[in-house]
Task: structure prediction
Amino acid sequence: MAAPSGRPTLLYHLYCGLTAVAVPFVWRAVRKKLLAAEVPTLRQHERLGHASQPRPKDQLIWFHAASVGETLSVITLIKRLGERLPDASFLITSGTPTSAALIEKRMPPRTRHQYPPLDAAGPVRRFLNHWRPDAAIFVESEIWPRLITETHNRDIPLALLNARLSDRSVEGWKKRPQTARFLLDQFTLFLTQNDKTARNLIAMGAPETRVKPGTNLKAMSDPLPVDRTTLEEIQTQISDRPIWIASSTHAGEEETVLSAHAELLKQWPDLLLLLIPRHPERRGDVAALIEQSHLTAAFRSASRPIAQDTQIYVADTLGETGTWYALCPIVFLGGSLKEIGGHNPFEPAQAGAAVITGPGYFNFAETFAPLIETGGATEVRTTPELTKAVTKWLSDPTKLNAAREAAKTCVNSQKNALDDIVETLCAQLNLKRQDPTSSG
Result:
């Protein structure tokens, strides 16, 4: 039986000491990145705990997420919680300018965004002193020890939502059992993506009564938005040409995609590849690779239209992925040919696409498993395999339609759990509709 975990451990105290010393150096590096992204000075200082907006007077529910995927996965949940708790306001914190830009475009009612404080005493306390959240919900695997313990110490109920842990992370925490128990004991509730994560959390020291296996929150998110005007413009430019998409590609993956496209052009000379780099700022590297492949390209950021001789259209912009998915029923999803962890296959599946992935989708293993099993997705490892997968669906509409239907059915089967998550959060975190006669 695990020992009580209420006391901070020596390792935790060592972490706090080191982060206190490291704050000036970490801040310098963080500020450099924010400056490069042209984030205003006022917003840069949010990382030091200085709020750039006032706290709303009513109940405030705080969601903290790491980056784009995690943040967007909770937007639908916030909308539903907002309907369930019409007097509540919401705060989302995420660490990247990319996530901040996307959130601004899809912000639910009564919601605001801030960058999270650095995980040190000063920034964390300034943040909590200002925002005073009534509940805190950390998304996926964001474990910041100081932020978590300072929040818990103020009697703010904490939940870890959509929890997932890699095998490496689990083994690492098992080597530090007392610290793992101490940090996990700060949480009121764990809602996991799958049974395996639930078992791992309990093995690491999480109180069993607080752990509830669930489903992947990303399966329940709203479809990505589609700009109908842009969609019609691009459809006109493409005309009746065949098309496939390579989305969320990372460094080291475009080479495989471009080689496959070169092979596919031999059978379909007018085939168009719509290439969506995960990080648009890599457009220079992508352009160089395309040039080396002796292919022609137009870049969205340069406002270049798709001409008849354009072989690749590079969608190097933010917030338009839903529009691109609406153009095409075949999507290769990047972050998977390398050991990156993959990306959310439910987004293209919701748009009606069949999905192709590499083998490195471990962050979405429980999501891809039923998709692959039912035929809504297929796995490839090499250029010839990617070429073969696209060829199969381009040349056989019946097989493509069956794969698209399987993908969409798989997504829809998991949507009913959203109401259960809302009710569980409200019950476990003591979130209630406020009495209109109370003083706020």
Observations:
- The two ends are 43 Å apart (CA to CA).
- Confidence is low (pLDDT under 50) at residues 1-5.
- Residues 10-36 form the longest helix (27 residues).
- The chain has two domains: 36-215+416-428, 228-413.
